[in-house]
Amino acid sequence: xxxxxxxxxxxxxxxxxxxxxxxxxxxxxxxxxxxxxxxxxxxxxxxxxxxxxxxxxxxxxxxxxxxxxxxxxxxxxxxxxxxxxxxxxxxxxxxxxxxxxxxxxxxxxxxxxxxxxxxxxxxxxxxxxxxxxxxxxxxxxxxxxxxxxx
Amino acid sequence: xxxxxxxxxxxxxxxxxxxxxxxxxxxxxxxxxxxxxxxxxxxxxxxxxxxxxxxxxxxxxxxxxxxxxxxxxxxxxxxxxxxxxxxxxxxxxxxxxxxxxxxxxxxxxxxxxxxxxxxxxxxxxxxxxxxxxxx
Lengths: 150, 135
Hints:
Shape of chain B: globular
CATH class of chain A: Mainly Beta
Number of domains of chain A: 1
Oligomer: heterodimer
Number of helices of chain B: 1
Structural class of chain B: mainly beta
Low-confidence stretches of chain B: 10-20
CATH superfamily of chain A: Protein of unknown function DUF2961
């Protein structure tokens, strides 16, 4: 009888990881363009509820015009705003030494920049060019969210 | 003796998933060109794994056509639409619009299905690829 209980407990233990892996995943992709001096635009504003959420801002890509004239863009990332897990991150993207389209418009290309910023409930990604010069800059992000059943 | 046997059995049970873990790397391609149509980029496949990334190439004569990607992971569908308007272009050849590899990195536990759809999104010959793996 004792052995049966031990076996049952062991089997139950084996099923827990499988149950914890079950999720409700969703993929996301967002785009924004910034072109006005000293402005801020929202690139992604994500909120996922309905259970414990595991999510990730996976990557960022920006394209700068060939006549960029030194304009930069600051990417501001706020994960889980207003919670104990809040993260406020930012990077400034300078296209000076980027690869360039060899014809067409000769744009400067960041390629996909891996970010891998984890968040639990909300994500806000904004582009800001205050005191960073002005050019028409296009950016994209990719992310995923996943509800993990309790 | 019985407890020892039981412990050994449980230990083997724990090892079994690792022994059976033979991942396969998958790479899928699809082209969409008919108006208001849907094609499979990744056919419905059972199992667990990860959707690594998606890449699409739009023709230079795209004329504003977009493509909607729908990833159904574990039965839950989510979509996004790719507009090539401001993407970089091939430096020669057709001057095609290039998304590059869009990193997705989303896992699934039971099934995957990825489609391309262009309903009301204009029509062009758009090629897409997906990189994914199955555990």
